[in-house]
Amino acid sequence: MIKSKTKISKQTSNKTSKYLVNTIREATKNPAWIEVAGILSRPKRARINANLSELADKKAVVVCGKVLSEGNVNSKMKVVALNFSEGAKEKLLNAGCEVVTIADEIKKNPELKDIEILRK
Fold it and tell me: Tell me, what's the pLDDT at 1?
């Protein structure tokens, strides 16, 4: 279920990270990214964190949380996330993957074309 912009705005007012707040605001400006904004506005414990092993069969994916380093990467892919652990970022870059933050991807791809949102 997609949250309304009003609910997202109310939940965002409680956030202390300026980076997170700015990312949520940018996501709410683009209708295609509103679901991502809704997930990011959740409490931190309810955000979606993913291990590399969970991303193995994807071509391009948005992780609304942190990418963690458990597992290996065997193919090139595009990973868009709020945050990356150092180990995960290193493994992805060594495998030739594209590593992008959500805020940067919103600017480059406002229509969310050819990218899957990871849901759990």
Answer: 67
Report pLDDT digits (tens) over 28-39.
999 999 999 999
Q: 117 pairs with which residues across the strands? A: 62
User: Residue 17, by phi and psi: left (phi above 0), alpha (psi -120 to 50) or beta?
Assistant: beta
Please report, for the domain that includes residue 11, its CATH number.
3.100.10.10
pLDDT of the residue at 52 = 95
Report d(CA 100, CA 73) in Å as an integer.
16
Which residues form the domain of 10?
A: 5-117
Spatial separation of the C-alpha atoms in residues 77 and 92, rounded to whole Å? 8
Determine the Cα angle at 6 with ends 111 and 103, to 5°: 35
Number of folded domains that form the chain: 1
Residue 35 · residue 115 · CB < 8 Å: no
Q: For 76-91, write each residue's pLDDT tens digit.
A: 999 999 999 999 999 9
User: Considering the entire predicted model, what is its pTM?
Assistant: 0.90
